[in-house]
Amino acid sequence: MSVRIVLADDQTLVRTGFRAILDAREDLEVVAEAADGNEAVVAVAEHRPDVVLMDIRMPSQDGIAATRQIVQSGASARVIMLTTFDLDDLVVAALRAGASGFLLKDAQAAELVHAVRVVAGGDALLAPAVTRRLLGRFATVALAPADASAALAVLTPRELQVLELLAAALSNAEIAQRLVISDVTVKAHVSAILRKLDLRDRVQAVVLAYDVGLVTPRSTSL
Length: 222
What we know:
5-stranded parallel beta sheet
């Protein structure tokens, strides 16, 4: 079964180029295009794609607002934000809105294809170093300590440890080594964290860890 994709970008040439790259793969299929955020929301509701490639800056409704609306609608589509700069502060806002990662617009064809496949498979599209760099630069604590404790109360002490290490940009293998547990156990803890906190992927878990003050930019080694 092909991965169904919606392309949302106000530049026709960008959409045309991306479509040519994606449709050339047997396992990928562009089912709709959108020129702004409003059209993207409608396209997702109509075509039920697996992945949305969403430009951050678009007229009428930008990609962040569109992503938030898509996520809140309960759609299963995962959103990859398209951006010109890899340290754009809007990227973090997009991740908080529910995006599963971001991709530079000048990415190579192989990177684009890989990104779509990774996100369609349920993983988040942010390397640990990129997660740390972005969130370390832009994240701010959004909740008071009491609120933070309440938000994380559903987690076990071990799950809290894993979440903190996720936010410090450690991979599953590094977490396993640090806690002296197996990779399989780490994956199980990550899955439990996402389920209990109602998060879509590990990027959202990292964002939450910063938002509730479990970690701060100063507490990670950038």
